[in-house]
From TrEMBL:
UniProt protein name: Pituitary tumor-transforming gene 1 protein-interacting protein-like
Record carries keyword DNA-binding: no
The organism's taxonomic lineage, starting at the top: Eukaryota, Metazoa, Chordata, Craniata, Vertebrata
Record bears the keyword Transmembrane: yes
Residue spans crossing the bilayer: 97-122
One of the protein's GO biological processes: protein import into nucleus
Length: 128
C-alpha cells in the first residue's frame, strides 16, 4: 500500500501536469486564429440564384437587384420590394406565398396539438 507522502507527491505531479497542459492549450489556440474575410455584400450578387442562398440577402424581381434583408422588420417593407416580387431562400417561391404556407403549417400543428390534448383528457376521465 503506498504511503500518504507518495500519494501526495503523485497528486501534486498530476496537478502540475494538468495546469501545464491547460496553459499550453490556451496559448496555442490564441496563436492559431486567422483573420476573417469580410462577408460579400448582397449588392454584388447579380441574379436570384446567387442571391437567395445567403440568409442575409433578399432578391426583388421588380428592381432585379439583391439587397440586405431588413432584419429590424419582420417583413420587408413595401418600399423595399412588394411581397409578391420578393424572394428569400429560394427563387421559385415568393415571400407572400412563403408567409401564407408557414402560417398554414403552424395552424395545422397547433390544431393537431389541441386534438391530442382533448383526446388525452377524454381518456383520463372516468366513464359512468
Amino acid at each position: 500500500m503506498p504511503s500518504f507522502g507518495a500519494l501526495g507527491h503523485t497528486l501534486s505531479t498530476s496537478l502540475v501536469c494538468a495546469v501545464a497542459f491547460l496553459c499550453v492549450s490556451f496559448v496555442s489556440q490564441g496563436e492559431c486564429q486567422a483573420t476573417q474575410v469580410p462577408p460579400t455584400p448582397c449588392s454584388s450578387y447579380k441574379n436570384c440564384d446567387t442571391c437567395v442562398p445567403h440568409a442575409k440577402c433578399l432578391w426583388c424581381f421588380t428592381t432585379n437587384n439583391c439587397t440586405e434583408y431588413p432584419v429590424t422588420w419582420l417583413l420587408p417593407p413595401a418600399k423595399l420590394c412588394p411581397l409578391s416580387q420578393a424572394r428569400w431562400g429560394v427563387c421559385w417561391l415568393n415571400f407572400e406565398a412563403l408567409i401564407i404556407s408557414m402560417a398554414v403549417v403552424c395552424g395545422v400543428i397547433l390544431l393537431a396539438i389541441g386534438v391530442c390534448c382533448c383526446c388525452c383528457c377524454c381518456k383520463k376521465r372516468p366513464s359512468r
